[in-house]
Amino acid sequence: MIADRAPAARPGASVSMTAAPVRRARRRRIPMLPYLLVAPAVILMIVIALYPTIYAVQLSLYDVNLARYNRARFVGLDNYWKLLFDDQVFRVSVLQTLRWVGVVIVGQLGLALPVALFLNMKFTFRGFIRTAILIPWVIPAAVTSLIWVFMFDANLGVANDILVRLGIIEIYWTWLSDFKTAFFLVVMAAVWSGFPFMSIVLLAALQGIPEEMYEAAKIDGAGVWARFLHITLPMLVPTILLILLLRTIWLSHSVDLVYIMTVGGPGYSNYTTAVYSFLLTTSQFEIGYASAVAVVLAVVLLAVSTIYVRQMERSQEYLR
Amino acid sequence: MKRAMTRRSFLVGLVGVTGAALATACSQPSAPAAKPADAAKPAEAAKPAAQPAAPAAQPAASPAAAAPPATPQPQIAPVSNRPITLTYWFWADDADQAKIITDGIDRFHKSQDKIQIKPDQLPTVADTQKKVLSSAAVGQAPDMSHGNSNWLQDMHDSDILLPIQDYFDKWERKNDFYPNVLDMARVKPSQPILFVPNHLIVNYLYVRLDWLKEANLQPPDTFEDMIKVAKGLTKGPDRFGFGLRGGDVQAISMLGHWYVGNGVNIINEKDESDFDSKAAIETTEQYAAMYTKDKSAQPSAPADRFPQLFAQFQGGKLAMLQHGLHSWKVQDAALGDKITAVSIPKGKVRRAVFSSSEGTLIYKGTKNPEAAWEFAKFMGDEQQAKEFVIRRGAGPTLKSVGADPIFKDNRFYKAAMDSQADWTALPEWHRNWLKFRDTFVPLFQQVLKEEITATKMHEDLAKILRAK
């Protein structure tokens, strides 16, 4: 095989007589095996990721309801037009998705960072605590939702009982029937459920910071706060940016917590775009219109992610 | 020399394979609706020989417009002698309900040896509906399923139900059905029978008898009475006269009694609606006032669904609760003689008591329509219908079952039966019903929280109902 390999034609070299044989030689020397090994994975990805995506885009161009499937009709971009210019619920859901993602991410990061710093310290039962901290994250979202719903039940919930006994509230509060508290209750559940993942990822990043940097800083007289601000935080930035991106994507299309705890209500106060799409599909069977909602959400997420990743790369170059 | 390939040829090959895979996937047969010929000739369809694909079959990935063809009535033919296996999907809210159905299947197997039922239990009514619809869309519907009358119109429009009118007309049991139960099985007067109902979910009002006596009040007979009784039985800080349900789509069923009772035409077959009329708006205002002004409904009403309402009612926080006969056992076990049930109160015009019937649906894709009919008939016949009525707590579909002493001796059954002449259904057949029903919930919650007016809610909802 090695003998078959011909040197590649360099720019500026004469190609009149040698270009074709060289190209043939280049083609011949690529072995089939690597492609064959990769092909199953690629085909699988195409089947499970590309085909549904293409199908969703196609469905979004139809006025189609699962309950009246045989009456589907092609409507072109009508669903998108209606969505963008004539659907107030969609507009509300977009704003509420931004609010939901923003508040939950800030909450999760705000809790995860101190916990990660704590877990990075040396103390007794550290291994046990590191494992135990994962419990909220491994509990299925449906179970988490129900736990929080029962805890904050307006009539029988333990939270009301404790708060009344402590004198913080006078009468039982209707948490899930109130526009503001319903949102913050779901946020609290999401923060509780999601912060362990962030903590563990941050912990892994913290353990990658060389101890020598801290020692050098100490010798230079840097205090705890200065060491955190000038060593720990900058070293964590790439990891933080990555988990922020991941959480943004996951939260944007998460349905479980919001749906199970509030069904998007009261009113439209907890309608996120994903919940809206989910309700359209599972309750109204409007698979065409729901696909349009999902496609718009996917496009927005893709665009945001692309910009974000580019910015992230620039930040990392800057840090280097 | 080893075989090698270029990157280009690999990519070309990959695109080809992908294209072929997509083309194969996209060319799955569409809903059985596209094969009306199969159902039109059930006797022939019963033959195992493969039928050539109907030319009308649509690719699954290319849903195309197609008006449902006329629904020819099947010719009845005797069941074949060889053993036949039929698939049957059903749901069960609890183990008891599942047992009623599986016991029925067992009895059916013992009653004959030619038809074997292969049941598949699904978690909820919504899951079953979704699974049937999505399976039917790709031509994979079961032979039969347990189903609800509110599924019928969409399925009829989609042409996935086997027409059973001819079978029904030849059934000796046909005259035993209550006429309004058959109306529900037709959905619209102009339509044939679409399924075989075997029991009814009947709504009524649970009332705390002990608190009524204590307050020297009578159970309400009209909505005006109900408002007064709710006020009279409210005792702060945590006893409320009425358990108002605002947290799920059943909110419209609860308030719907009031609309129809007060003469509001939500929507009719001619697409006429007075849902934005003064009467409709005033009805909502009157109902919502129990929460906003009288404070006779529980504070958590906007988010409460049936588990919360049950917990409050059984925990002694609510005096009245609108629910159905199917929950009498749990309420009776929790509260015993402290409670009774009465018919849904009358409005200004009439008493409207919403009932939905459940029964057996046969799908057009079945290869054995006669065998499927035999099973559907068995599940709708007196013995099995009685099992549903007695063991689940349900209204009767048959007069012979309705004559059972339980409908006189048991106060809950009696309350359900007292309203028999008033059993009716919401216009769930309407093309925009699902959107209307889903939009009703957040808008009604906003009315309860006084974020919007009842007028605004009715205007928005009337637009949805009237949308073409």
Structure description:
The complex is a heterodimer of chains A (320) and B (468). Chain A is mainly alpha-helical and 320 residues long. Helices cover 70% and strands 1% of the residues of chain A. Chain A contains 14 helices and 2 strands; from the N terminus they run ααββαααααααααααα. Chain A has a two-stranded antiparallel sheet. Chain A is globular. In chain A, 30% of the residues are buried. Chain B is globular and about 75 Å long. Helix content of chain B is 44%, strand content 13%. The termini of chain B are far apart. Chain B folds into 2 domains: 84-200 and 356-414, 3-Layer(aba) Sandwich (D-Maltodextrin-Binding Protein, domain 2); 202-355 and 426-466, D-Maltodextrin-Binding Protein, domain 2. Chain B has 468 residues and is an alpha/beta fold. At the A-B interface, helix 2 and strand 2 of A face helix 1, helix 5, helix 6, helix 13 and helix 20 of B.
Secondary structure blueprint with pairings:
The complex is a heterodimer of chains A (320) and B (468).
Chain A: H1 19-28, H2 33-59, E1 62-63, E2 73-74, H3 78-85, H4 88-119, H5 126-132, H6 135-138, H7 141-151, H8 158-165, H9 179-207, H10 211-219, H11 224-252, H12 256-262, H13 273-282, H14 287-319
Antiparallel strand pairs in A: 1-2
Helix pairs in contact in A: 2-14, 4-9, 4-11, 4-13, 7-9, 7-12, 9-11, 9-12, 11-14, 13-14
Chain B: H1 7-26, H2 36-40, H3 42-45, E1 84-91, H4 95-111, E2 115-122, H5 125-137, E3 144-148, H6 152-157, H7 165-169, H8 179-186, E4 196-208, H9 209-214, H10 223-233, E5 240-243, H11 250-261, H12 278-292, H13 306-314, E6 318-324, H14 328-335, E7 339-342, E8 353-362, H15 369-380, H16 382-393, H17 399-402, H18 406-409, H19 411-418, E9 423-424, H20 433-448, H21 454-466
Parallel strand pairs in B: 1-2, 1-3, 5-6, 8-9
Antiparallel strand pairs in B: 3-8, 4-6, 4-7, 4-8
Q: Which structural class matches the secondary elements of chain B?
A: alpha/beta
CATH C-level class of the largest domain in chain A is: Mainly Alpha
Shape, per Cα inertia axes of chain B:
globular
Between the first and last Cα atoms of chain A, what is the distance in angstroms? Answer: 41 Å
Q: Given the structure, what is the number of helices of chain B? A: 21
Shape of chain A: globular
Radius of gyration of chain A: 27 Å
Portion of residues in helices of chain B?
40-55%
Named at the architecture level, the CATH assignment of the largest domain in chain B is 3-Layer(aba) Sandwich
Level-2 CATH architecture of the largest domain in chain A: Orthogonal Bundle
Order of helices and strands of chain B: HHHEHEHEHHHEHHEHHHEHEEHHHHHEHH
Name given to the CATH homologous superfamily of the largest domain in chain A? MetI-like
Count of domain modules of chain A: 2
Most extensive interface:
A-B, 57 and 69 residues
